[in-house]
Design a protein that fits this description.
Elements lengths: L5 E6 L2 E6 L9 H16 L6 E6 L14 E4 L2 E5 L7
Parallel strand pairs: 2-3
Antiparallel strand pairs: 1-2, 4-5
Length: 88
């Protein structure tokens, strides 16, 4: 699965997620949303997965960090909070 900014492959029950936001894999709102979509898809396929590896594309940095607000601000309004991870 490929959202552009984050994608994954599953091989031998190992999901490898790659953040792909050159040059430093900044964790902006769009990247966090792409990662949330990847984690949601992996949650739907959890019976196929025993381990998850998270990596950053390129050779400069795993992830350069980013805007640490827990929600996205658009046109002066706050949208719903972003959440990364598996639901229970």
């Amino acid at each position: 699965m490929d959202t552009g900014l984050a994608h994954y492959d599953i091989n031998d029950k190992v999901a490898i997620i790659q953040i792909d936001h050159p040059p430093m894999n900044a964790l902006d709102v769009a990247t966090k949303e792409a990662m949330a979509q990847v984690f949601q898809e992996l949650d739907d396929r959890r019976k196929e997965i025993r381990a998850v590896i998270l990596r950053g594309a390129g050779d400069k940095a795993f992830a350069a960090g980013g805007w640490n607000w827990p929600c996205a601000v658009t046109s002066g309004t706050v949208t719903k909070p972003l959440s990364l991870g598996f639901r229970r």
